[in-house]
Amino acid sequence: MKDYFNEAHPIISFGYFVLVIGFSMFMLHPIYLIIGLVATCIYSMLLSGFKALKFNIVYMIPMLILMATINPMFNHEGATILFYLKSGNPFTLESVIYGVISALMLIIVIIWFSCYNVVMSSDKVIYLFGKIIPSLSLVFTMVLRFVPVYKKRIQKIILAQKCIETGEVKGILNKLKYGVKILSIMTSWSLESAIETSDSMKARGYGLKGRTSFSNFKMTTYDYYMGIWLVINTVLVIVSYFLTNDSAIYFPTIQINTTNYIGYIAYINLCFTPVLLNIMEALKWKYFVSKI
């Protein structure tokens, strides 16, 4: 499915992810976390389809259960004691809830970053930071592409080795030798590519004084409207959060304020911005098609 938010200006996209990731990390309020979780899961599915759903279920749910179980074993604060461990320390309900909240925060941030990696391509990162910190932006974009590139290369090497060698590799020692062989080929290939990349950059004048840069990204009226939308909702979230004392306390007893309705609506608007944009564009497309 086409993602219309991906077509926004890099400043808008980057600013959006900074906001939602920042709020997810520092606002450990259950309502904000639930809103963020639903928004990021839906958006990740729009970007990656069933693959994102599988990732969210297979990896994120076990992480949630693991952190909710482990946290009370080390954090013994809380007034509601469920039972005592063999060490004599209490296993409290508040610690379990706080473990779930912490796990939700971590899961939301991870999924937001997965969406960031899809939307913020290397071209966008270089456009944003190339003039300010060119060396760091180049290193950052190259690091981001290492994992997918190396994964594809390893798959090609394994496929080539299967064509050369007949039969399945059996035994721990043989499998270890096979893995070392794959790693050795991969290392040689990567070093050779690094030399070629270095020569190519030098030939194109990278690092010379007075070099110019080219970009296809331009701010449109649509981008300005989206920027205003993000700023308004961000201000509403922050101001209402402090004015209503929208806090969540987990120790020694759980005390959660749930009266900040303006903040919740503004946070929904903020987190669901890409989803709302895609829905709006889909409805607009259907409307124009119906007029043909």
Give me some keywords for this one.
single chain, 292 residues, two-stranded antiparallel sheet, two-stranded antiparallel ribbon, 4% strand
Short recap of the structure:
This protein is mainly alpha-helical and 292 residues long.
In total, the number of strands is 4
Mean pLDDT: 85
Strand coverage percent: under 5%
Radius of gyration: 25 Å
| Low-pLDDT regions | none
Structural domain count? 2
Run of helices and strands:
HHHEEHHHHHEEHH
Q: Main β-sheet, in a few words?
A: 2 strands, antiparallel
Describe the fold and architecture.
The structure is a single chain. The protein has 292 residues and is mainly α. The protein has two domains: 4-124 and 228-290, no CATH class; 134-203, no CATH class. 72% of the residues lie in helices and 4% in strands. It contains ten helices and four strands, in the order H-H-H-E-E-H-H-H-H-H-E-E-H-H. The chain has a two-stranded antiparallel ribbon with strand order 1-2. A two-stranded antiparallel sheet has the order 3-4. Helix 3 (50-74) packs antiparallel against helix 4, helix 5 (122-129) packs antiparallel against helix 6 (134-164) and helix 8 packs antiparallel against helix 9 (261-271). The longest helix is centred in the middle third of the chain and has 32 residues, at 172-203. The protein is globular, with a radius of gyration of 25 Å. The two termini are 23 Å apart. The relative contact order is 0.14. The mean pLDDT is 85.
